[in-house]
Every structure is written in C-alpha cells, then in structure tokens.
Amino acid sequence: MKEKARLTELAQRLADKPKGTAEAKGRLGQLVANPPHGEKGDFVKVTVTLPPAVYQVLSQEVTRRKLAKEPNPRLSAVIREAVVAYLESD
Length: 90
What we know:
By secondary structure, the chain is mostly helical.
C-alpha cells in the first residue's frame, strides 16, 4: 500500500472513532504523564513544531512552575500533561 493511501486510511479510522470512547478511556486510565525518574526508558521521542505564541505560553508555564517550586518544571513534562489531559477530555 502506498504511504499516502496508508496515511489517509489511518486518518479516516481515527476520525471515525469518537475520542471519548470507552476503549480510549480504558487505555488512558493507565497513562501517567510524568512517571518517576527511573521509569522513562520506554519513552518515544517526538518532534513537534509549534507556533511562537503557543511556545511562549508553554515557556511561561514552565517559568511559573520553577518560581513556585512545583513538580515537573520542564517543557516536556508540561507538554505530556497537556496531551494526556486533552485525550482524557470528552
């Protein structure tokens, strides 16, 4: 199957499934956005391009967390939390 056709098929399958399905919620219920330090060996590296305004908001959140001495004051942690929260929302 050609790459474009395969990607089109995958996109269609994803679009056909509502994001709040019980199946998706079951999988997401097991996800932890920021596991303890020693448990990150199985992570998959992803590169994302963001608009400057979105990056600025993320940077402000990182700075706010650092100043407040909150846990996970790293850009990657904030992005992981946002992705999990988005996927868990209805």
